[in-house]
Amino acid sequence: xxxxxxxxxxxxxxxxxIDLSWLIIAVLVSWSLAAGLFPYLYKNLSQQTYWLMGIIGxxxxxxxxxxHEFSHSLVARRLGLPMKGITLFIFGGVAEMGDEPPSARxxxxxxxxxxxxSLVLAGVFxxxxxxxxxxxxxxxxNGVIRYLAYINVLLAVFNLxxxxxxxxxxxxxxxxxxxxxxxxxxxxxxxxxxxxxxxxLIALGILQMVSGxxxxxxWWFLIGLFIRGAAQxxxxxxxxxxxxxxxxxxxxxxxxxxxxPSTITVEQLVEDYVYKYHFKMFPVLDDGRLxxxxxxxxIKEVPREEWNxxxxxxxxxxxxxxxxxxxxxxxxxxxxQMHQTENSRLLVMEGAKLVxxxxxxDLMKFLSLKxxxxxx
Length: 376
Hints:
Radius of gyration: 26 Å
Number of strands: 10
Helix content: 55-70%
Structural class: alpha/beta
Strand order of the largest sheet: 1-2-3-4
Distance between the termini: 27 Å
């Protein structure tokens, strides 16, 4: 879903990362608050005060989104669903699941936790705001607190819309899933609703842009595109899961992989293997024993003038959990591992023995055929 993200901190065992796209909305939110909302609500304050309020308000929104996503993650972990972490990006944040929820009940409680937490946070900010009024706190302080109460209500209401993959859409899917006992059908219906909602936001955005509200219209347009794309992608993920689940890796692996001897040079590997077979990773053997593997990434790190002197045995790295998999592993987990590590080829190991190579291409061929034959 995201581009490159950067780790901010770790809390309760969850890693919080930020996508660089978040900086765009941080700047836009600060600017819209400092130049629009706060001057409209509170007259005759200095420009510096408005900007300070805007920056603090944006920071409060940032923390509110983290609180919302942490609620999802903590409830999911309590119910046994593995969570990888939280990533903040241009449209807000997402708690990244390691797998689909195992049951409708788990999805319902995980999904509803976010909006409930935002409403609770809104109530806390409102009580602080009332206390501030009674204590006659400075207007800028109370103004920011009032905004944070309002924005958390808005965050909860928007997420409760039954548009998959928003929280409300996940709640809807969990109800349909529990009623029909069919995850695929429930996801299809929820995804259609989510896609239609996205199209509606796109139309609203275009209408606003034509009417003169270009910035607001652009945001509605982009959010609509995101929701529509995410809804369609979520349904595709369920199709992938249904097609591959229960299938062992050994069914798809190549039991006679192309290997390279440790004694050849990088230049020989490139000319006789990379350009011939078009693979990005090759197992390296030393007298029939697996020494490790070498990738095109490693080759690029060797200066071109040294290719004819450096052997691949010197470059080979031992297998790691990122590029090794067991032949009895479920293909769904293999595909997830490829996605997470960005490795399109995995070493299939049985103990210390190399028994094959699993490639993304082979998984996709099977997936394409099965979806084509079985999807109605």
